[in-house]
Specification:
It contains 9 helices and no strands. With about 220 residues, the chain is mostly helical. The chain is elongated.
């Protein structure tokens, strides 16, 4: 996110991050299965992580830039609260989808003599791996896990779709030219911006006015 310091625009990075994130989710839908290599699975996770990292900070900057100086703290707190609530809701939904579907599909695919082990298979990946590769039990477990993960990723794709149009609707502020409407020196404010130059001129006028007033009182 250091490039934002030089471009002073957050929206370009937000849009790019969302596109990368959605591409990562799409790749996970394609490669997050038993037929993919470890490298393919890890690469999709890395892409999703990069996209998520490029999305979070610019989105927060956009919210802060659209707020008055005295409202930045409240706006940031509200943004982080919504992010936390959204994460909790997402975890609850994904957990419910996973718990229901994995058990349902294991009961559908497991041989009759192994259906009594459904709870142990769901609760422990180590126990699931005790069934040798190529056995009917192991094939059923892999198929159930693949199909359940596919359902989760399809839901994720649909949840991600509104992100891009909503981001496009955000105003593309020039961060170093925002009038923060505060008196005094603002730490981190660009000295090249017109607002800063006006503020500096106002300060000089005030200093001159103060000196003149002081001299007038002394003469009196």
């Amino acid at each position: 996110m250091g490039d934002i310091l030089y471009t002073a625009h957050y929206k370009y990075y937000l849009i790019t991050g969302i596109c990368v994130y959605m591409m990562g989710i799409g790749l996970m839908l394609r490669y997050r299965n038993s037929g993919s290599s470890t490298a393919q699975v890890v690469l999709t996770q890395i892409i999703v992580g990069i996209g998520g990292g490029m999305t979070n900070v610019p989105a927060q900057l956009g919210i802060q830039a659209s707020s008055l100086h005295q409202e930045v703290g409240a706006a940031t707190a509200l943004f982080l609260t919504i992010v936390s609530i959204g994460g909790a809701i997402g975890s609850a939904i994904s957990g419910a989808v996973w718990s229901y579907n994995i058990q349902y599909k294991l009961m559908e695919y497991l041989p009759e003599n192994a259906k009594g082990n459904v709870k142990e298979i769901v609760g422990s990946a180590v126990f699931a791996q005790t069934f040798a590769m190529g056995t009917p039990e192991r094939i059923a477990i892999i198929k159930a896990y693949d199909e359940t993960m596919k359902i989760l990723l399809i839901i994720a794709v649909f949840v991600c779709l509104p992100m891009l149009p909503m981001a496009l609707l955000m105003k593309n502020f020039k961060l170093d030219q925002i009038d923060q409407r505060v008196k005094g020196t603002v730490i981190g404010f660009s000295p090249k911006s017109p607002e800063h130059e006006v503020g500096a001129q106002d300060s000089k006028v005030n200093e001159v006015t103060g000196d003149v007033n002081g001299q007038g009182q002394a003469n009196k």
